[in-house]
Specification:
The complex is a heterodimer.
Chain A lengths: L1 E10 L8 H15 L15 E3 L7 E16 L1 H11 L4 E8 L6 H4 E11 L6 H12 L5 E6 L2 E6 L4 E8 L5 E8 L8 H12 L4 E14 L2 E3 L8
Parallel strand pairs in A: 3-10
Antiparallel strand pairs in A: 1-3, 1-4, 2-3, 5-9, 5-10, 6-7, 8-9, 10-11
Helix pairs in contact in A: 1-2
Chain B lengths: L7 H4 L25 E7 L3 H4 L3 H11 L4 E7 L3 H10 L17 E5 L6 H10 L15 E5 L15 E3 L6 H15 L3 H9 L4 E2 L4 E5 L5 E6 L8 E2 L27 E4 L1 E2 L9 H5 L4 E2 L2 H15 L3 E5 L9 H14 L3 E3 L7 H10 L6 E7 L3 H6 L6 H13 L4 E8 L6 H18 L2 H4 L6 E8 L16 H18 L3 E5 L2 H11 L5 H10 L13 H10 L4 H5 L14 E2 L4 H13 L35
Parallel strand pairs in B: 1-2, 1-3, 3-4, 4-5, 9-19, 10-13, 13-14, 15-16, 16-17, 17-18
Antiparallel strand pairs in B: 5-6, 7-8, 11-12
The chains are: A alpha+beta, B alpha/beta.
Chain lengths: 233, 625
């Protein structure tokens, strides 16, 4: 029983065409339908007290999204999960929740994420050869690309934002890039930008397919931790 | 059964792909194999517009309550999506099951706006359905259409198998029942059309012959056989409380134009403004009870999770039980953190207090619709509002903390002179003047005004249906004159106006005859679609379409008709007599006002429906009862 929870949810193919704001609105309405006693902010335009770990880009599927939510009454993770899932459309599902005893912001805790990016190249290549190219890409000390920001594009070295990269054969056609990169409010590396850089620097003619987020982490003292583990840090 | 396969190569290439995937909350899921009738409800515009439309929500709900019918939705794909669909050879499909619309039993279009007509052709074509009704055979769906623009169905007669005139809640059941009878009978396509032609409110254009004079006006409209009526009378729902109204409406994923619960207070309008088509074709006024509305508000919030309710009607202030109803509703909405939006409210002490309570958001803007700049012209159009009313309303609003006001006008109204046009600017100046000091006293900033003019388009079934519309040049001249006048005087007034070329085409299509089918067809083949959107409208394209078909758009838009002329929609009966409309038109020229329905009956003819306000006994009605 707790007044606040941290929860993990997934989004599959069916709802990946929603933009981040659509997902926020979807949760807002689902929570209202669920009848759960969600807390609201004070003031002129009261909002539900719910904060998401990372924004979800249009096109992204995920098995590891996180959010913090507050209630006016004590509530068990089980009650929360079952009632919210009943009010959520097919394609987004709450998987897990833990009590949140201390108010912390999930948004500021998240610092990295793991992605699986499916891609293909024009001619058939040995997966090991592609992996070799990816590893030599990682040998660069400087990978500068143009990053679009609020005030136009500017050059950014994204190499320090990449923690690990490797390529393998996909289950079906094509290949998969496993990427572990910096994420969050401070130094977010979007997987589409990473793929653009990879294509530019290596000359690989990549066509990018689906992008899946399979984990996100909080870091404490240079240790990557599951967001549930740090829920009460 | 075929289902269209959607994937990333399509959906990640278009804007707002969530418009094309369906699966929203409250979408109805049925097994298409388990129903007898598959109905595609088609909205000939973008998803964001179509999903804001109350009529679709009502009919979707009513049809899907039938176990034997599955009603699905289809919208006009935006141009980026259409291009990719054509490239990939994908047919237009419904959002519920991704079934091509060609596989449906009936496709029903709603006609909300004349400028969406080319989208109908485009949607049929993209769906693999022959665009012309005469080219369809037993393997094709029936294509029907209803909604406000259907009161003059003639311009679309070549494309639509049958029209439904008036409100659809009851007649749609009769049509589905007839379809089931016909489907089992093994008879030909025409047999079904004969069957529905016998249903009151259904018009089958192919069963009427139009005869023209040499000058292009109509000599006669004749039924081709004794099986169809001489005139087709509009259908209405007599009692709104017993009419089915949805509380489990679909909740879109993306923001739409009206993304909220809509509570329909009443249909029709007591006012009788002479330019307003809705004010005549939805007669008589019928209210929903406050009890029913409160019940609907509560269950809708529960089933949708929406946090906003909008009260819907042509004139909210005229709802007879407004204060009690709002008290009750506000009690609920405040507790549930639901915002109330109150459009088309007359501004007075009561309504300002209400707005303050209803919406916790910033006091941004208030809108008023004086429609004309001078008292003389407001009397011509029977808009019972005076300069003094307006001044005191705006002063109240400014004192209450509102500092921006938007005023809606029309230019090109019958009898309008340049003096009336200048009156629009003068009204703006005098409002600014009269509010000087008020804002200071209440610690607010000064008043900012937006004046917006639309171009008057004469519409069928109004007292102005015989009037010529101003030419494009004259409308431009009036717009520029007004713009100039305002710019020279003050920076506190912003002026907005509409493209006269689009208005001209709207006028042509709204009062057009059957021969316009060829023009619409040509314009579509030349690339016309989304004509209501400035960025897609091309006047040159329409001009070319007129030229190619040897017709003249001014004949339809800018010509004064004689009262005795046979109008293309004379075989449609909305309950309001032509004689009444003639009288109203003559009174307009004299500047004589006509009392509103709440103050007494003016014998428009709508009492034939024996419903609503015509039967309220507590008023001093000379008619009805």
């Amino acid at each position: 029983m707790a007044r606040a929870l941290r929860f993990r949810f997934s989004r599959d193919e069916r709802l990946k065409y929603l933009a981040h704001l659509d997902v926020l609105r979807l949760f807002e309405r689902a929570l209202k339908r669920s009848g759960l006693p969600v807390s609201y902010t004070q003031g002129f335009n009261p909002r539900q007290k719910i904060v998401f770990g990372l924004p979800m880009a249009l096109g992204l599927t995920s098995s590891a999204e996180y959010a913090d939510i507050e209630f006016d009454e004590d509530i068990t993770p089980e009650t929360f999960i079952s009632r919210l899932n009943q009010a959520l459309p097919d394609g987004i599902e709450v998987l897990d929740a833990v009590p949140l005893l201390k108010k912390g912001s999930i948004m500021s805790q998240i610092t990295s994420a793991k992605y699986e990016v499916s891609f293909d190249v024009p001619q058939i290549m040995d997966p090991d050869e592609i992996n070799g190219i990816v590893i030599s890409f990682m040998d660069n000390e400087d990978i500068t690309v143009m990053k679009k920001g609020k005030s136009g594009s500017k050059p950014v070295n994204i190499r320090p934002l990449i923690y690990s990269l490797s390529a393998r054969k996909a289950d079906g056609d094509g290949y998969v890039l496993d990427a572990f990169v910096s994420a969050g409010a401070e130094n977010n590396l979007r997987p589409d930008l990473l793929m653009k850089a990879l294509s530019q620097k290596t000359g690989l003619d990549l066509s990018v397919g689906s992008i899946h987020r399979r984990a996100m982490y909080a870091s404490t003292f240079n240790e990557w931790k599951d967001p549930f583990e740090v829920a009460n840090d | 059964m075929m289902r269209v396969k959607l994937d990333d190569t399509l959906l990640l290439q278009v804007e707002k792909p969530a418009k094309y995937i369906g699966n929203e909350w409250n979408m109805v899921k049925k097994d298409p194999e388990s129903v007898e009738v598959r109905f595609a409800f088609a909205f000939p515009d973008d998803y964001e517009i179509g999903m804001s439309h109350l009529g679709m929500k009502i009919l979707y709900h009513i049809l899907n309550r039938r176990e034997d019918t599955y009603c699905e939705r289809v919208f006009a794909p935006w141009v980026d999506m259409e291009r990719l669909m054509r490239e990939k050879g994908l047919p237009l499909y419904t959002l519920e099951t991704y079934t091509p619309i060609s596989e449906f039993d009936i496709i029903g279009f709603t006609l909300q706006y004349e400028m969406s007509y080319t989208n109908i052709l485009n949607m049929l074509d993209l769906g693999g359905v022959p665009v012309l009704a005469k080219d369809r055979n037993r393997s094709h769906p029936f294509v029907c259409a209803g909604g406000p623009c259907a009161v003059n169905p003639e311009p679309l007669a070549d494309f639509i198998d049958f029209f439904v005139i008036g409100e659809g809640e009851e007649v749609i059941h009769e049509i589905i029942d007839a379809y089931k009878d016909w489907k089992g009978s093994g008879q030909d396509r025409n047999a079904f059309l004969e069957l529905v032609a016998g249903i009151e409110g259904v018009y089958v254009p192919s069963m009427y012959e139009i005869v023209y004079y040499d000058d292009g006006t109509i000599m006669d409209i004749m039924p081709k056989s004794g099986k169809v009526p001489d005139t087709v009378r509009k259908r209405i729902v007599t009692d709104l409380d017993s009419a089915d109204f949805p509380d489990d409406i679909i909740v879109p994923y993306i923001g739409t134009v009206h993304d909220r619960i809509m509570l329909e207070l009443f249909r029709g309008c007591i006012r009788g403004c002479r330019f307003c088509q809705a004010g005549f074709i939805y007669r008589p006024v019928r209210e929903r009870s406050p009890e029913k509305l409160n019940e609907l508000a509560r269950s809708s919030v529960e089933k949708t999770g929406y946090d906003e309710i909008s009260l819907v009607s042509l004139s909210t202030s005229d709802y007879s039980a407004l204060p009690e109803f709002c008290d009750n509703l506000l009690e609920f909405s405040e507790k549930e953190r639901v915002n109330l939006s109150l459009p088309s409210l007359r501004v007075d002490n009561f309504s300002l207090g209400l707005m303050e309570r209803a919406s916790k958001v910033r006091k941004s803007g208030l809108t008023f619709a004086p429609e004309a700049g001078t008292q003389r012209l407001r009397d011509v159009i029977n808009k019972g509002i005076t300069d003094e009313d307006l001044k005191s309303s705006v002063q109240l609003a400014v004192a209450g903390g509102w500092n921006s006001v938007k005023l809606y006008f029309m230019i090109g109204l019958p009898t309008e002179t340049m003096q009336d046009v200048e009156g629009i600017a003068d009204l703006g100046f005098s409002l600014i003047e009269s509010c000087r000091g008020i804002a200071d006293k209440h610690g607010g900033r000064g008043l900012n005004i937006t004046l917006s003019t639309s171009n008057f388009v004469p519409k069928p079934f109004t007292p102005f249906q015989w009037e010529p519309m101003d030419s494009i040049e004259v409308l431009r001249e009036k717009q520029y004159h007004l713009k100039d006048l305002i710019r020279k005087r003050t920076r506190r007034i912003r002026y907005q106006y509409h493209d006269p070329e689009i208005s001209h085409m709207e006028a042509v299509l709204s009062r057009g005859d059957r021969r316009l089918g060829r023009v619409i067809h040509t314009a579509w083949k030349l690339g016309a679609r989304f004509d209501g959107w400035d960025e897609h409208f091309s006047f040159e394209r329409w001009q070319q379409a007129f030229e190619e078909n040897g017709l003249n758009s001014s004949f339809y838009a800018n010509r004064r008709r004689d009262f005795s002329e046979v109008l293309p929609w004379d075989h449609i009966d909305t309950g309001v007599n032509k004689g009444f409309l003639v009288r109203e038109c003559q009174k307009a020229y004299e500047g004589d006002l006509t009392r509103n329905c709440a103050n007494g009956c003016s014998n428009c003819g709508a009492s034939v429906y024996q419903a609503g306000i015509c039967f309220r006994k507590d008023k001093n009605n000379s008619q009805g009862g």
